[in-house]
Design brief:
The protein is α+β, with helices and mostly antiparallel strands. It is built from 4 helices and 4 strands. Strands 1-2-3-4 form a 4-stranded antiparallel sheet, with helices on one face. A hairpin with a 2-residue loop joins β1 (138-143) and β2. The chain starts with 5 loop residues before the first helix and ends with a strand.
Length: 175
C-alpha cells in the first residue's frame, strides 16, 4: 500500500471540512409571511367641518311650517349655487339624481368638500334629500349647474297638482 501524498491529504481534509460545514451550518428560519399593508384610498375621506358650514346656514329654517314650502326648494337651490361655485369639475361625480346630489353635498365630490354633514336633518336615514313632508326631493339635472328641484307636496305623490317645482333658474314653476 502506498502512502498518501501531501496534496491527497489536503484534498481529503478539504472534503471533510466541506461535509462538516454542510452538516453543522446554521439553518435559516423561514421568514414569516406578513399580511399586505392596508390599502389607502386615492383620496382622503372627507372630514366633517368643525363649525356649521355656509350651506347649513343657507338651509336655516328648512321645513319651517311658518315659511312657504317653496322656500325650502329655494334654500336648496342656493346651496346648489354654492356647490357649483366651488366644484368646477363636471366630469367627476356627475349628478344624476337625488342620491348623487346628496352624496356630493356630504363630501363625495372632486374637492372632498363637505357642504352638509351626513347627519343634517335635510337627509333621510338612507342619505336622500327630503322635503318638509319627508318625501325625497326629485332632482332633474338639465345640464351642468342646471338642476330643477321638485317636491311631491303634502300628499307625497309626485307629478300631480300639489307638487312644488323650482326651475334651474330659481323660478317657481306650475306642476
Amino acid at each position: 500500500m502506498r502512502a498518501w501524498k501531501w496534496h491527497e491529504w489536503l484534498g481529503a481534509i478539504a472534503i471533510l471540512v466541506f461535509v462538516l460545514w454542510l452538516v453543522l451550518r446554521p439553518v435559516e428560519k423561514p421568514t414569516p409571511i406578513l399580511p399586505p399593508p392596508p390599502v389607502t384610498p386615492s383620496q382622503p375621506a372627507p372630514t366633517p367641518p368643525a363649525k356649521p358650514t355656509a350651506a347649513e346656514g343657507l338651509l336655516s329654517g328648512y321645513g319651517d311650517p311658518a315659511s312657504p314650502p317653496i322656500d325650502d326648494l329655494r334654500k336648496l337651490n342656493r346651496v346648489l349655487g354654492g356647490y357649483f361655485s366651488v366644484i368646477k369639475e363636471p366630469s367627476k361625480n356627475p349628478i344624476g339624481g337625488n342620491a348623487d346630489l346628496a352624496a356630493a353635498l356630504r363630501g363625495e365630490n372632486p374637492n372632498r368638500t363637505v357642504f352638509l354633514p351626513a347627519g343634517h336633518p335635510v337627509f333621510s336615514p338612507d342619505g336622500l334629500l327630503l322635503d318638509r313632508w319627508g318625501s325625497p326631493v326629485i332632482v332633474h339635472p338639465e345640464g351642468w349647474q342646471r338642476i330643477e328641484l321638485r317636491s311631491a307636496g303634502p300628499d307625497k305623490v309626485p307629478y300631480n297638482g300639489d307638487d312644488l317645482i323650482l326651475s334651474a333658474t330659481g323660478l317657481q314653476k306650475n306642476p
